[in-house]
Amino acid sequence: MNYPAILTIILLSCLSCHSVKPTTPVYQPQARTFTPTASSIAIPVEIKLDLLRDQINRKFSGLLYNDESYTQPTKDDLKLKVYINRKITINATGNQLRFTIPLSIHAAARWSACTICPELEGKTSFELDAFMTSSVAIGNNYDFALSSKAGDFVWTTAPFVQIGPLKIPIARLLEDILRKQLQKVATEIDQSVNKSIDLRAMMQTLWNTTSEPFLLDDSTQTWLTIKPQNVLLSPIQGNNERIRMNIGVRALIETVTGSKPPAVKPGQLPQIATGIPNDERFHIHIYSGIGFDKTTEIASRMNGYEFSEGKRKVRIENINIYGVGEKAYIKLLLAGAVRGEVYLSGIPRYNSLSDELYFDALDFDINTRNVLMKSASWLLKGAIQNKLKQTLRFSFSSEINQLRKTIRESLNTISYKDLLTINGTLENFVISDILIKEDKFVLIFEATGQAKINIH
C-alpha cells in the first residue's frame, strides 16, 4: 500500500478545507411598534314618529282649556272651551318637528250697551289647526333634548261671536289664550319625550358590552376584541316617518386566535362630539404568528443540500431561523470545503399574491462576510443566498383563506346576549405590517369594510 500517497491526499484535502467561526451578528433592537388604525362603526339610531305620536296622543286629548266665567280669571266677557278633537300629527324635516294640533273651540261672549242696559249673549263653535315647532338635539352627555314652542294658527274664517246685530271679532283674544295654553302643552311634551328616550343608558350598555370579546369562529377559537375610544354624532335627519341619526364609535378592533382574551374593563363613557368621522369604515387587525421553531422545522428540508464551485463543495448540516429587531437571521452549520457556522440576514416580507412570508435582501451578515472574504470568497457569489431565497418561503394561504371566510361570514352573525348585532361587509384584506417578537414572526393583516351596530 502506498501510504505516502494516501497521506498526501488526506493532507491536501485538509488543506483545502477551511474552518470558519465568525462572531454572531450585532443585533439591533426593535425600533418601532405597530400602531393600529382606528375604526369607525356606525350605530344607526332611529326614533319612529309613530311612537312619538302615540305617546303624545295618549297624554293629550279631549279638553285642553276650560273657562266658564266671564269675570275669572279676568273680566273679559268671554267663556271658552278648547278641545283637541282629533289626533295630533307630526312631520319632520332635518332636526325640526312640526306638530299639527286640531282644535275645536266653543266660545260665548256677552255685551251690553250700558251699565243698566240688558246683557246680550252670543255663542259660536268652530275648528282650527294650531301648530307647534320643535328642534331635536343630543347633548354631549347623551341627553335627548326636544325643545318645543307654540307656533301659528290657521283660521279658515276669522272667528266672531254674533250678539244681536253686532258681530264681535275674537281672533286676537283667542290667539293670546291659545298660545299660552299651547306653550304649556309644548313644555309637557318636551318633558315627557325627553324623559322617555334614554340614549345615555343605551350607549352605556353598548360601551360596557364591547369590553367582552366576541367569538367569531368556534373551530379556530378566533375572537374579536373592540376597544372603543370616542363617540361622534352625525347631524340629525328627519322625514315623515322617523328621526334618524348615526352615532359613530371610534374603536380599535383586533382578532385573537386561541384562548378567550380577558375582558377589558370599560373606560368611562366619553362625552359625545358632533361631527362625521372622516373614514366611516372598520379596520380589523388580525394577528397571525409563525414561531421560529416552525420556520426552522420547515427550513430543515435543506439539511444535506450541497453547493459546489468547481471542485469545492459545501453542505448544509443544520439550519436555524430566528429574528431580532427588524431582521430575520439564518444560522447555517456547514461541512465540506467550509466548516463551521455562518449567518445570513434578511427583511421579513409578505407576498400578497402567493400569501407567503419570505426574506428580502437576504445576504451574509457583515461579520460572516468579512471572514469569508479571507478564506472562502467563492461562497459570496450568491449560490447559497439564491437557493435560500427560493426555498425559504412560508405559506399562509390556507390560514388566510379561512380568516377571510370567517370574517366575511361572521360580520352577518355577530350578536351579544340579544342586546346588539353587528352587520357589515368585508371589502379588502391585506397585509399591514410584520413584527418580530421573542419567539416568532407576527404578521398583521388588516380587514376593511363597512359595519354598523344594531341595538335591540
The residue-averaged pLDDT reads 83
Segments where pLDDT lies below 50 for 5+ residues? 5-15
- Rg is 41 Å
Structural class: alpha+beta
List the helices and strands and how they pair.
Elements: H1 3-16, E1 18-20, E2 39-48, H2 49-59, E3 62-67, E4 78-84, E5 89-93, E6 96-111, E7 120-138, E8 144-154, E9 160-163, E10 166-169, H3 171-196, H4 199-209, E11 214-217, E12 222-233, E13 237-238, E14 242-257, E15 273-274, E16 282-291, H5 292-299, E17 306-309, E18 312-324, E19 327-336, E20 338-351, E21 356-364, H6 366-375, H7 383-391, E22 394-395, H8 397-410, E23 414-416, E24 420-436, E25 440-455
Parallel strand pairs: 1-20, 12-15, 14-16
Antiparallel strand pairs: 2-14, 3-4, 4-6, 5-6, 6-7, 7-8, 9-10, 11-12, 12-14, 13-14, 16-25, 17-18, 18-19, 19-20, 20-21, 21-22, 23-24, 24-25
Q: How would you portray this structure in words?
A:
- This protein is α+β, with helices and mostly antiparallel strands and 456 residues long.
- Helix content is 23%, strand content 48%.
- The chain contains eight helices and 25 strands.
- It has helices at 3-16, 49-59, 171-196, 199-209, 292-299, 366-375, 383-391, 397-410; strands at residues 18-20, 39-48, 62-67, 78-84, 89-93, 96-111, 120-138, 144-154, 160-163, 166-169, 214-217, 222-233, 237-238, 242-257, 273-274, 282-291, 306-309, 312-324, 327-336, 338-351, 356-364, 394-395, 414-416, 420-436, 440-455.
- Strands 2, 11, 12, 13, 14, 15, 16, 23, 24 and 25 form a ten-stranded mixed beta sheet that branches. Strands 1, 17, 18, 19, 20, 21 and 22 form a seven-stranded mixed beta sheet that branches. Strands 3, 4, 5, 6, 7 and 8 form a six-stranded antiparallel beta sheet that branches.
- Strand 7 and strand 8 form a beta hairpin.
